[in-house]
Request: fold
Amino acid sequence: MLIYLVRRIAAATLTLLLICLVTFVLMHAVPGGPFEARADPRLSAEAIHALETHYGLNEPMPEQFLGVLGNLLRGDLGVSFAQPGQPVSSLLADKLLPSFLLGAMAFAFVVGVGVPMGIMAAVRPRSAWDVANLVTSTVLAAIPHFVIAFLMLLVFAVGLGWVDVRLGKGFGDSIASLPRGILPAIALGAPSMAILSRLTRGAMLEVMQQDYVRTARAKGLAERTVVLRHALRNSLVPVLTVLAPIFATLVTGSIVIESIFGLPGVGSAFIDSVRQRDYGMIMGTTLLYAVVIMAANLVVDLLYPLVDPRFASGGARRR
Reply:
């Protein structure tokens, strides 16, 4: 296990280095610098040149990149150009809580609704519930989450007037603000919930045909025990496989959802930083998302042996 962890950490380090390089190249490939993008009439050409010299933006690209890497190795994400003097790490820390809460609520919705829906559809195949689940999951999986978000605002904010258009303003400030994240979390997680529901149904149907399930039923065990104790656990391996990609989808998808609902999270800060050519915030946000995604994949890999002991001995990989 230790060797496996070392290899994964080494691979993650190389991946982060590549992401850093690609992000750096793309940032500087866009015409206009961070101070030109602000379009501040008080900044003359001489002032812009002085600022670029102060921050080292007029140095050769390789030297700038090495400087960025050196700062990252020291744990320094640099400073924000749009908010002079503000460290990127502090700005991201202020935005983390709303994004974390939104992601947690969306993930809870995906797992808490998608898995039970799939189980119920598998237990009653070709029933009215199964057909309804198939139609619902197919429609939700085909619609992008930002379209669902706009439809929710159109219905609940514009049509019914139940919520404000900028629903997410102040989200994360207190416990009382958590209900403001319900609609954004549902909009963010609905497509992933539909996919997880269909996957759970398929995995459960396959397991329910296995001999040990028939044997459990022949012993007279209750159907609830057969489904939850014998069938569900063995069907969780393919479900667990997609949890990390689903979590990654929720993390990256929150960029758009936060902007639509006005949530003060990392996603909104990332869009603002792209608009303002704030190189430090762009790099810091991109690396933050990359670390979260890779950590999610690592956690899922470590959970495999707990769900299916065959992975601990490598038996499942040899087949």
User: Anything to note?
Assistant: The domain at 97-318 is CATH 1.10.3720.10 (MetI-like fold). The radius of gyration is 24 Å. The first helix runs from residue 2 to 29. Confidence is low (pLDDT under 50) at residues 315-319.
